[in-house]
Amino acid sequence: MNKKSKEYTIGFLQAAGVTLYITLFVFLIELAQSTRIFAGPDQIEHAIIFLFAFVISALTCGSLVLAYPFSLFMNGEKKRAFSIVVWSAVWLLIILGIFFVALLTR
User: Fold this and answer.
1) How far is CA 13 from CA 4, 52, 54, 57, 65, in A?
2) What value does the mean pLDDT of the chain take?
3) pTM, two decimal places
4) Are 19 and 95 in contact (CB under 8 A)?
């Protein structure tokens, strides 16, 4: 396999990991809402939980997409690292587009 296809594949796998994480996270939030864990009036605790979830999500998604390219960058493979990040972004946009089309056709 040449470098181009490897970068393409790595970007896809990273985007798939982010998609899986988002899907599981949303499933858990829906489960928590259906079991009334978040029931009741809006409270400061809800804001705290939201911010913690946001920070954890940013850390997780950032690690999934940027850890390997950062390692490559630090080892002098700057062009390849950038290419992988771009491919990850392209795949994420494609996956987002698929979700939008699926929502519009429901």
Assistant:
1) 14, 26, 22, 18, 9
2) 90
3) 0.86
4) yes
Does residue 91 contact residue 45 with C-beta atoms inside 8 Å?
Answer: no
Q: What is the DSSP code (8-state) at residue 40?
A: S
DSSP 8-state secondary structure symbol assigned to residue 76: T
Place of tokens 């009741």: 40
Locate 40 and state its tokens. Answer: 């009741």
User: Which spans in the chain are helix H?
Assistant: 3-34, 44-74, 78-104
37-57 per-position pLDDT tens digit: 776 667 788 888 889 999 999
Compute the distance between CA of residue 19 and CA of residue 94 in angstroms, rounded to an integer.
11
Q: In whole angstroms, give the CA distance from residue 79 to residue 37.
A: 47
Read off the DSSP letter of residue 95.
Answer: H
- Tens of pLDDT, residue by residue over 73-104, are 999 999 999 999 999 999 999 999 999 999 99
